[in-house]
Write a structure and sequence with these properties.
The protein contains seven helices and nine strands; from the N terminus they run E-E-H-E-E-E-E-E-E-E-H-H-H-H-H-H. The protein is α+β, with helices and mostly antiparallel strands. The chain has two domains: 110 residues, Ubiquitin-like (UB roll) (Roll); 116 residues, Orthogonal Bundle (Fumarate Reductase Iron-sulfur Protein, Chain B, domain 2). The chain has a five-stranded mixed β-sheet with strand order 2-1-7-5-6. Strand 8 and strand 9 form a beta hairpin. Helix 3 runs antiparallel to helix 5, helix 5 runs antiparallel to helix 6 and helix 5 crosses helix 7. It starts with a strand and ends in a 5-residue tail after the last helix. The protein binds iron/sulfur cluster (2 copies) and FE2/S2 (inorganic) cluster. One iron/sulfur cluster (SF4) binds next to helix 4 and helix 5. The site of one iron/sulfur cluster has 14 residues, from helix 4 and helix 5.
Length: 234
């Protein structure tokens, strides 16, 4: 298999972005965008398609198994996980890679997603005492526990920006989990957080649902959390 990776590059946040292309060839039918990036960077010298010497490609990864969310980037215009995007998923020879656009770029495909943690901290996403989780809410708690905090949902959200307090689905999903487990004395505080961090800013368009790499059942979590936090039907 032969692919040309067109990568939007910049050496740091202040520099002008430019496109640079790299040829990648492999016999591995399972190869992903992450496989290609790892192997390109492992070369003693990295050259682009024109033969020019290039700096290693900056990007983030950890598990390479669709478990950590670190490798999220825009692939052919869609936010996806590099380790979950096979090179043979497109018949085109050229694949475009860009950093997630809603976050500050550090370099190349590497972005600063610290706003995800800031929003969770501001929303108070922790329990003050032991969880209470009856069997009828196991499904919500389990579904919400699968969030990778990758940020793909925020990429397509018309209402999310690092400048405002609306946390989008990346905040809603952890709050949905806590709402399902919250002991009685913490429910009101969590409901208030949910109302200000999620409910008030969300237009319910569900664009986020279509790009979540974990395929989280966002409709269900939204409806159950709205019922609990806004209508107080615990
Ligand atoms: S809800 Fe889905 S897309 Fe959003 S951060 Fe969690 S795993 Fe990623
Ligand atoms: S439903 Fe729409 S507004 Fe709400 S978090 Fe998802 S994309 Fe954003
Ligand atoms: S490297 Fe962990 S999800 Fe891709």
């Amino acid at each position: 298999m032969r692919r040309v990776l067109e990568i939007l590059r910049r050496s740091d946040a202040a520099s002008q972005p430019h496109w640079q292309s790299f040829l990648y060839q492999t016999d591995d039918e399972q190869a992903t965008v992450a496989t290609a990036l790892v192997e390109l960077n492992e070369q003693d010298e990295l050259h682009d398609v024109d033969g020019a010497l290039a700096e290693p490609i900056m990007w983030e990864n950890s598990c390479l198994q669709k478990k950590c969310g670190a490798c999220a980037m825009v692939i052919d215009g869609v936010p996806r996980l590099a380790c979950d995007t096979r090179l043979d998923s497109t018949r085109h020879e050229r694949i475009r890679l860009e950093p997630l656009r809603k976050f500050p770029v550090v370099a190349d495909l590497l972005v600063d997603r610290s706003v995800l943690m800031r929003n969770l901290a501001q929303a108070g996403t922790w329990l003050e005492s032991a969880a209470e989780l009856p069997a009828k809410r196991w499904d919500v708690a389990y579904e919400a526990s699968r969030c990778l905090q990758c940020g793909c949902c925020l990429e397509v959200c018309p209402n999310f920006s690092v400048q405002n307090a609306f946390g989008g689905m990346a905040a809603m999903v952890p709050l949905a989990r806590l709402l399902s487990e919250a002991p009685a004395d913490q429910r009101r505080a969590l409901a208030a957080s949910y109302a200000s961090a999620v409910y008030g800013g969300c237009g319910k368009s569900l664009a986020c649902r279509n790009v979540c790499p974990a395929n989280i059942d966002i409709d269900k979590l939204l409806s159950r959390s709205n019922a609990a936090a806004i209508w107080h039907r615990w």
